[in-house]
Amino acid sequence: MKLIVDPGGGRCAYVSAAMALRQTGQKAYASVDDLARELGKPISSLGGATATEIRTFMQALKARLGPVIPFRSWREIENAVPHDGSVLSFGVNFGGKGGHRVFAFRDTFGKVLIMDRGGMGRLPRVVGSLEELAKPYGLGPVTGFFEGFVVQDLFLKFLGPAGLPVLAMEVLATTIFDGEKLPEVYESYQQGKKRLVAPDTVITGGFSVEVAAGDPKRSTLSGIAKAQYGDFNLWPLIFDLNRSKIGANPNLLRPGTKLLLLPLERYTPQEIEQARKRAPSWRAQAV
Q: Torsion-angle region of residue 59: left (phi > 0), alpha (psi -120 to 50) or beta?
């Protein structure tokens, strides 16, 4: 696993930007120096930056970003963090003694967490509250917020070890594939290659549904699809993500099996339409 090490200095906005771009799959940065080189600037020239300034730099890197959003409270920030794997860059004010930029994201269970730089020579840290965020800086509590913006997740799509389509996305920037191969994986994605076999794929960012016998909303894939997606015919989306648990026959679900589902908005219109076309295939294996 390879995470971005903090180079130190008053460049939190750029450290946070590099981490956010890597986490969302937009850039395969191994260090903040990579971001500086792509901007054509020495890392020593990177200092403090407002939301508008850092957003302008990121746009120069062709990053996919949302508009600048003002924040007045932590609750507003929590509500603004997307559920699709994207992250929210925002700034905090430590009692008027200093500003700092971090980003927020949702873990597998939908909880909002904060990704912060780790300090000179250290890996980033993840905290669950503003109190935890403020503690190591010794500048007092968070008393205000600076503008923010969403860094959009590309939800990189690859084929897994068995040739099955999977959504490879990791919310803590731990590894999608072997960390040393991330640049290679990213380049393959950018070049539009249709097949990439990974030795070890981690799928996160969704939610689970436990199969329950006799419950029409949890006993069959079509029932689960209807309950969660509003359409019986979208059961192939669930089947593709859980084939290793279900087996070859989508009609045979074992009670107690925990199935992984992703929010419907994570799928493209083409994938949804393809799922509907495949829906009648269950009859071929009816028992």
A: alpha
The answer to whether 117 and 17 are in contact (CB under 8 A) is no
User: What tens digit of pLDDT does each residue of 43-58 get?
Assistant: 666 666 778 888 888 8
Which residues fall within 8 angstroms of residue 264, CB to CB, at 6 or more apart?
228, 229, 234, 272
- CB under 8 Å to 132, separation ≥6 — which residues? 114
Whether the predicted pLDDT of 130 surpasses 90: yes
Tokens in use for 253? 């679900």
Range with the lowest mean pLDDT among 131-140, 193-202, 273-282?
193-202
Tokens at residue 268, please? 């493209």
CA distance linking residue 85 with residue 267, whole number of Å: 12
CA 157 to CA 178: how far, in whole Å? Answer: 16
CB-based contacts of 36, cutoff 8 Å, min separation 6: 14, 42, 43, 45, 46
Q: Which residues pair with 150 in a beta bridge?
A: 88
Q: Which tokens is 261 given?
A: 């589902």
